[in-house]
Design a protein that fits this description.
Layout (H helix, E strand, L loop, with lengths): L4 H11 L4 E8 L5 E11 L6 E11 L10 E6 L9 E8 L3
Parallel strand pairs: 3-5
Antiparallel strand pairs: 1-2, 1-4, 2-3, 4-5
Length: 96
């Protein structure tokens, strides 16, 4: 049974777009889990100065490929454990 492109597009539209972030691996000590730090910049609401913010995510890494310092692309997914709701899409750049 073949699935046509239109069926894929409609199921994707119903599910909605998943968030994708780009971040740096800061810890790989756990099994199949890495901690990724994602940096964002936002204007201060009163002073309009750009403020840097950092958020840490626990990310599922199925093959244990990521190492500290790697630049990775992560995406939202269904809850994998108590704190893991993200998974590694790809390793953009390996650490030197």
């Amino acid at each position: 049974m073949a699935i046509d492109q239109k069926t894929i597009e409609t199921s994707e539209a119903q599910r909605g777009q998943r968030k994708v972030r780009l971040g740096t691996v800061i810890s790989d000590k756990m099994n199949k889990t890495v901690i990724v730090q994602v940096g964002t910049s936002k204007a201060h609401r009163l002073y309009r100065k750009t403020v840097q913010r950092r958020t840490k995510f626990k990310v599922h890494d199925e093959k244990n490929e990521c190492g500290v310092g790697d630049l990775v692309r992560i995406t939202e997914t269904k809850p994998i454990s108590k704190e893991k709701r993200w998974r590694v899409l790809e390793i953009v750049e390996k650490a030197k």
